[in-house]
Structure prediction request, 210 residues.
Amino acid sequence: MLKKSLLFSLSFVLSLLVFQYDLLSASALPPDLPSKSTTQAQLNSLNVQNEESMSGYSREKFPHWISQGDGCDTRQVILKRDADNYSGNCPVTSGKWYSYYDGITFNDPSQLDIDHVVPLAEAWRSGASSWSTAKREDFANDLNGPQLIAVSASSNRSKGDQDPSTWQPPRAGANCAYAKMWINTKYNWGLHLQSSEKTALQGMLNSCSY
Prediction:
């Protein structure tokens, strides 16, 4: 009887730990990621073509970290959204963040970047070069989709402007959600993708269980 009780207690503790890990991982992600089946349909619908020229590109053509009201800019809004907890209000001065890309926890917001999941330069090569400045500003400050996420500065800077054919999150467990975020962003904004990018995204999406 005692042995059964101990086994039950151990099973309960392990279940609780798994549940807490799932909560931690989920809290680090943008909300409302689509299902695997929905994302697959979005990927299938995206136009595949060669990347466009970088001619004329500059980050200044995508005005970002604009005011979002109440003294907050886009960066501060994402820092608050993605935090387990935080202190200060625009600027956020401290807190706790789980960097989904590499699985590292931070307490200092200065060690975090707000990643454009689809980099600005990648968007330019994928159709944004023909957009108005106002539309590029909306893209660079998109609070409605999964285009922005708080992650470690080191992971964001190692990514640069690469697409998933040449860069994927260093934590293998992040590949499913990253593919969903990338595909959903390109779908929402009508951006095209290249063949090698689609192949990489399909492989990442295949790893999803939901």
Observations:
- Confidence is low (pLDDT under 50) at residues 1-26.
- The first strand starts at residue 67 and ends at 69.
- Residues 1 and 7 are 10 Å apart (CA to CA).
- The helical segments are 2-27, 36-45, 74-82, 120-125, 133-140, 153-159, 175-189, 195-206.
